[in-house]
Amino acid sequence: MNRQSGIHYLHDRPGAGSPVSVPPEVTRIRDTVVAGLGDLLQGAFDAVDDSLFELANNARSNNEQNRYFEAMREIRIKRKGVEKQFQHSVGALFNHPPLADADQQSQDQLQNQETASPESLSLVQDDDLEEQVALSAMISKARSYFQGPLLQLQTRFTVIYPSASEERPVNPLLPDYICRAFAEAAGAFEIQIRERLIVLKQFDRYVVANLGMLMDEANRILIQAGIVPNFRYHGKNRQESSEIPASSSQNTAGSHAAEAQESYQVRENDALFQQIRQLLAEQRGHRSYSTSHYGSSHGHGGTEIHIVGGAELLHMLSQASANTARQNAAQDNLSAGEPVTVDLRDLIEHVLETHEPEDGKQPALQEMDEDLINLVSMLFEFILDDYNLSAPIQVLISRLQIPILKVVIKDKSFFSRANHPARKLLNSLARAGIGWSNADEKSRDKLYEQIHNIVARILDEFDGDIQLFETLGEEFDQFLTRENRKASLVEQRTRESERGRIKSQKAQDTVDHLLKEKLARRPVPPAIHDILVNGWSRVMFLAYLRNDVEHRWEQSVRVVDDLIWCLHPHLDDDERDQWVRVVPRLLKALRAGLEEVSYNSSRLDEMMAQLKHELTEAFRNLALAEAREPDDMEPEQPVLEEAVEPEEPLEAGVAEYLSDIDAINVGQWVEFRLVNGSSFRCKLSAIIDEADCFVFVNRMGLKVIEKTRVDLAHEMRRGRLTVLEQGALIDRALDAVVGTLRKQA
Predict the structure, then answer these.
(1) What are the pLDDT digits (tens) for 489-512?
(2) 3-state SS assignment for residue 688
(3) CA distance 325 to 340
(4) Is the torsion defined by CA of 409, 413, 418, 419 positive or negative?
(5) Which residues, in sequence order, are bridge partners of residue 693?
């Protein structure tokens, strides 16, 4: 039976003739699968909407933000049609069962070879190629995930459909067809490649990752109908199982059967978990307490063993957890001291050595349980070394090693399900406490008290029921929603206040610089200088702030230019006529502007009288003014040279860090280290481009520090600024564990 992974398109499929008659069991499976996929797809589209909204919220430009909002609008409008088309295509797979044999694949390959000429390949756009690669990767991963259930379904469906045979099997639930059906339906979205890849990613996370439960239900229905009810899929552990001593075969047969059934139920064929198990198997040494160790070490005449697993193992861990809690944690403060380092391997060794089974046999673990213990131990080694995790949270999470081990022994989907209740809760705790530092007053922080209580409840109440994590997660989410709402309001006020302050500062600096430059170029009498610097500068300041709406800045600058022009000699008749026209309008504008800024009324009349006097004198004494002008202009050039300060070059090595600073997004957490050795964590709240200013706030939304882009590059070069990773804690830990195992392999 050939089980190569070929990719078949739903349209123009050979062998998909008229619908075949199928028994009611297949109709029931079809309805269940179509309804289940519809529900999963709704969750995927909701996640797409959340992802696009978050990207739009963190966009660095209006164009980028509009792009994400347009994609959200496009998907919201067309998602119902896409869902309907997808469900229709999946339902058609059961009426036209696709052939999955070698002949079918050969036909597809031949057709692809005929159509894939160099000319056509050159027309394939990079975006289309990128989408095809993502789709192919999704299909390959799904085939690997669900290899066992897929083989069972293929065998049973091949028996049902009359046109199928062992040489020409069928399987409507192949991930190839389901993924392609969605890709064709999603083609209705008129969105760019980045947004399209987000859609595929969420489809993979919410739909493809949960195909296993639909496959399990389909197999259950077919088994109840008596279709190949005794199918058995023997994995690679079959040989190891045969090596268990004959004397213990009767006692362990039921345990192995239960283990095989449990392994299937939790998808032993999960790609990530399988990969980790293979890597762990390569490193498994003499310190092993699994059945395979005793079987291979002692041969058939070795020690009879007693399998410790299930409820018995969980009970032993509960007792060990209670003892560890009493030894390592003060009951009133779980975060006291350093993180608790529990060597789970030593703990299990001690538990097995002190455990005396009633049958008097040697206690041993199932190999999968031993792998889970090693994996959880490595995960917490990463967590306790993770610099991104705040110190108080690190201490609290370290108390949960044994409870999490009990979780994964009972429910192995902890590793494959991103939305597993225990996994979600750990990620939420780490994410919520990222803003803490050692110097914080934890006793006064409601968030710390909430997290402390959650950890205490897990240690006291967890008896193997995963529902506890879900309940605690919902309570914590509700608490965070309230706290984040308060912090967001404070942060918004802080951000607006800083923007206003910085814009005001820039406005004042601009006004002062402009007046200094103009008055240095063409000096004016002291009385006029006082009017401009102490009076009209206020008008210019407000005009600069309102310029975005009222465009008054240019008018206020024009008044200064006109006033200086009127105070200097004009011998040409046209210029003198212009002077006569400009002065009345100028005086009116000056008075109106100064009155608008509530300038002292008595002082205003005096200033206007002085201004009129200076203008009159300037008009009468043209010759004298003309004689003074060359002397007045002498200091012009030196002053201008002093005003233009050359830009200081960046220090060597600082420029290379500027790109890292530009990569910091609003909402990202960083840690600053001070010269005295202390440190504090804060979040980037705003980037104010007008002043090249980065504003950071604490967890409560209050301003902590502000720095320029170059200052931040200096801090990073000196090792005083660290950008913290905010990805899901368990996801990062799994990635680190896999990377470590690969290096050691």
Answers:
(1) 888 888 888 888 888 888 888 888
(2) strand
(3) 10
(4) negative
(5) 688, 708
